[in-house]
Amino acid sequence: MSFLKLILKNPFRSKSRAILAIIGIGIGIATIVALGAMTEGMVSGVDDTLHAGGSDFTVAGNENNTDSGMSQQNMASFGATPLNQSWVGKILNVTGVNSAVGIYSTMVQPQGLNGYLVVIGLDPSQSKFAELTITNGTSYHKNTSEMIMGKLSAEQLNKTVGDNLTLKDKTYHIVGTYETGDSNQDQGVYTSLENAQNIDDAKGNVSMIYVKVDKGADVDQVTQRIDNLYSDNVTTISSVSDISSMQSVIDMLNSASWAISLLAIIIGGLGIINTMLMSVMERTREIGVLKAVGWSSKKILLMIMGESVVITVISAIVGTIMGVIGVELITAMGIMNGLTPIFTITTISEAFAVAIIVGLLGGLYPAIKATKLQPTEALRYE
Amino acid sequence: MSENIVEVKNLVKTYENGQVKALNDISFNIKEGEFVSIIGPSGSGKSTLLHMLGALDIQDSGSIRVGNINLEKSKKLNEFRAEQIGFIFQLHNLIPNLSVVENVEIPMYTQKISSKDQRTKALSLLEDVGIKNKAKMKPNQLSGGERQRVAIARSLANDPSIVLADEPTGSLDSKTSNKILEKLTLLNKQKNVTIILVTHDMNVAKLADRVIEVLDGKILENSEDSLLDNKISV
């Protein structure tokens, strides 16, 4: 038997104690994994929407912009400030811009739904841009009250082609259903730009302008050009971090994740200290024997810390599985409101790093205590 | 003439800030390949002496030389224990969650020996003490005598030059005790391993080549010839 095998074997001498420690630390790890997956899912979802239709970046009104006549931020477009529709033409004229499409999105609570429905207004002539796959029925038309409904929202509202949907006292006719693969879009509806603007009484405004650059053009140069020309009125958004309101939500989630990691380290660390101290105490005489047969203090330290890390790494495996199952269950129950959690190697690596840190820190004190045992006293221990 | 493998000079060990003298100015030598018993009542200091010979405890004054090593000066006492000393304890002190053969392998973790060679050697040692057929069992599946035989095999794992046995038959019945003592005697005669055995039982002590009697931390008798004459067989 190798020294490593001994380290793997020892923590399970008291199975119930090891299992309790694993569950305790595993819960902390599960929380880290779940929060990390939700944060990643949110970032990815927003990023997908920002780059809908393969657009390179998005233009929104900046916080000082007043030409839309709307001062409030639009939550359906992640807190971006709306801007006047005339900006679509201005952006289109900037060198390097190939296409610019304005959309108006808003959030409405329809009857029969606890949450909000995202209504996306897009000129039907530009519907190709949204890369919608009509799964049933047809697309909508201008100057009508037609709309098409995303796969997720149709499921949530139990609607299909031919049904009507009333939003803010106006009835819309569902002429088709679509699917994009982006949960943000699939839990919404598409209608004409004017219909969406009318819901918020925001005629002539767009929430965002999706921009594609010319083939071979440098995206950064084009955004820089727009910023230089129109920084008083508009802002360019290339990634989630460019949206301050979204970034604060993500920062908050990240902070919560790190706070929980820290708590997991403290609580898990105390748990593992307790587990390993009890283990060392119970094995006092055995540690005396190990010293008597010539084991160095370093080897005893390595053994105890190794055992501690074994427990926490198993906790990380169990916690990761618990986190994944928990998040999948919550998603299946529909509580996540269309958010698709994403489990990344980074999130799982962070969880394992936390577990190993807990193991090393928690095992250190009991290990030092074990090395300081006097062999003669340890051998006399009853 | 064999050389001294152990030289103890003016050894003093006290406890409780010098109030209790466990060993009081003890001096003796042990020759290589000798079988020596240290006898004395409980609290006489015999186990303390054994622990000091095995570098498990440090003396207040005096010197101990084992082989070429002055224990009070050496900074690598764990290496000394791993390479030179084999311990046998009264309560065998086997590790309960490890199998018999894994217990014998434990001292070998201090040496650079492959796992395969460790296993081969451990099985060979178990065969020597007649318990190879129980190699995969856990200590709690063995009798007291069998456990002590495993402890003997463990004490020999690193080919020590000295085996220190602290009341190795103290918890065994007389029949099992005799078998264990027979193994130790064979070990001494066949492998020329120096054995220092601590006991409070004169019948056990008399099996040795020489008896050192300790009382109140002092050696009372160190007469090789007289005890050999009265030696009883096991």
Which SSEs are present, and which pair or pack?
The complex is a heterodimer of chains A (382) and B (234).
Chain A: H1 3-9, H2 15-50, E1 57-61, E2 83-84, H3 87-92, E3 97-108, E4 117-121, E5 133-137, E6 146-150, H4 151-157, E7 164-167, E8 170-179, H5 183-186, E9 188-191, H6 193-199, E10 205-206, E11 208-213, H7 219-230, E12 234-237, H8 244-282, H9 284-292, H10 297-332, H11 345-372, H12 375-380
Parallel strand pairs in A: 4-9, 6-8
Antiparallel strand pairs in A: 1-11, 1-12, 2-10, 3-4, 3-11, 5-8, 6-9, 7-8
Chain B: E1 4-15, E2 20-31, E3 35-39, H1 46-53, E4 61-66, E5 69-70, H2 77-84, E6 85-88, H3 100-105, H4 115-128, H5 144-155, E7 162-166, H6 174-191, E8 194-199, H7 202-205, E9 210-215, E10 218-221, H8 224-229
Parallel strand pairs in B: 3-8, 3-9, 6-7, 7-8
Antiparallel strand pairs in B: 1-2, 1-4, 4-5, 9-10
Task: Summarize the entry for a quick read.
The complex is a heterodimer of chains A (382) and B (234). With 382 residues, chain A is an alpha+beta fold. Chain A has 12 helices and 12 strands.
Overview of the molecule:
The complex is a heterodimer of chains A (382) and B (234). In chain A, helix 8 (244-282) runs parallel beside helix 11 (345-372). The model of chain A has no long low-confidence stretch (mean pLDDT 84). Chain A is α+β, with helices and mostly antiparallel strands and 382 residues long. Chain A is 52% helix and 17% strand. Chain A has helices spanning 3-9, 15-50, 87-92, 151-157, 183-186, 193-199, 219-230, 244-282, 284-292, 297-332, 345-372, 375-380; strands at 57-61, 83-84, 97-108, 117-121, 133-137, 146-150, 164-167, 170-179, 188-191, 205-206, 208-213, 234-237. Chain A folds into two domains: 3-45 and 247-380, no CATH class; 57-237, no CATH class. Chain B is an alpha/beta fold and 234 residues long. Chain B has a single domain (33-45, 77-229), classed as P-loop containing nucleotide triphosphate hydrolases (Rossmann fold, 3-Layer(aba) Sandwich). Helix content of chain B is 32%, strand content 26%. In chain B, strands 6-7-8-3-9-10 form a six-stranded mixed beta sheet, with helices on both faces. In chain B, strands 2-1-4-5 form a four-stranded antiparallel beta sheet, with helices on one face. Chain B is globular and about 50 Å long. Classes of the chains: A alpha+beta (382), B alpha/beta (234). The A-B interface holds A 1-3, 6, 9-10, 12-13, 285-286, 288-297, 299, 374-376, 379 and B 48, 51, 54, 56-57, 78-83, 85, 87, 89, 93, 95-98, 102, 105-107, 109-110, 115, 118-119, 154, 157-158.
